[in-house]
Predict the structure.
Amino acid sequence: MKFIVNNGGRLSGNIRVPGDKSISHRSIMFGSIAEGTSTISGFLEGEDSLNTLRAFRSMGVDIEGPDKGQVVIHGVGMNGLKQPDMPLDLGNSGTSMRLLAGLLSGQSFDVELCGDASLSKRPMERVTRPLAQMGARIDTTEGGRPPLRIQGGAALQGIDYLLPMASAQVKSCVLLAGMYASGKTCTTEPAPTRDHTERMLTAFGCSVQRDGATACIEGPASLTACDIDVPADISSAAFFMVGASIAPGSDIVLEHVGINPTRTGVIDILKLMGADIELFNESEVGGEPVADIRVRSARLQGTRIPEQLVPLAIDEFPVIFVAAACAEGETVVTGAEELRVKESDRIQVMAVGLQALGVDARATPDGMVIHGGSIGSGRVNSHDDHRIAMAFAMAALCAQGTITIDDCENVNTSFPDFVGLAAAAGLSIRSE
Ligand code: S3P
């Protein structure tokens, strides 16, 4: 599938983007191993979170829905999962694989986790190494890539783990294994990363002790069913924040967006660039802060992005690079080498795509230097990466001609009906 996006236009109206992907994954995982019935609303019906849902169904969990974002999970308790008949295919979803590796390391049965071509290339030793320290037995292919073969019946011991990189997936994986371990499991992160696991485990009645960069869990733990209201995904809202900022005359409201402070780096970065972003109707749902976000167009300026904001905006860089390409002057991103091991190498793929559109963008080992001002027109490849496809779609709002984006199927992993919603908001987009 390709996107063809005509240049120009502006974004307006009130829109609600789909549910938060990270929170949707966790709601299925924790609801499944809780005692009792949990109702989830606002669940993301995208391929990634659906793969998590299917995985738990194939481990014997009775899950109703999703029906208009509502999912009812009849939890089986910490030790109620059953061995699946087949390997669990997690598609494109790194979060499913890394969190499930932790959650399934302490089960009594063997299980295999596999995924699509992109996921099969992503590094898994970052989770298998701490899990092995806890006593888990997991085989990978050469170089620590999927599939993961997890042997059941391992007796896990709590560990004190200092994360070598800022990764919420690694932190969550270790904490979930810690629920099945004896003793205390602690993670310490080098920089703050999204804390949905810590917040949602607390909502499910499992105490997570937090002290600065350290989070600890006492095993064996147990969870009690809990209803979850999933806010709209700030990572999906980010495309519209940038689109509205760069398209003159735009004025858009993004409703009920999760504004957990470990996720709002994109707002801080865009504000540093001069964006006009206002939060209102702030409230809290199930331990997660939400707000409506109004964005009006503004003249963006290039900036040097502070490294401490990088993990807080890690999924938003494709579209932040687009903002930088439209901004006046130089934008410098450093400390973002993790972008090279996402669904694609997002530094390389974005630099090549921006260059194809005539932008002066230079990839560096850990980021990019972009001299902004204008975007031309042409054809780019998303390399099957959902966020690259949506970022280049928004680029058309400040481009000089049509942008065609190849290989856009995976937009469905995180943002079903992106084309419909973006078109309704004013983007001149069609898919073919
Ligand atoms: C996620 C954590 C991040 C992020 C991913 C979702 C999560 O990955 O990029 O899209 O839900 O925990 P890392 O922890 O590998 O940075």
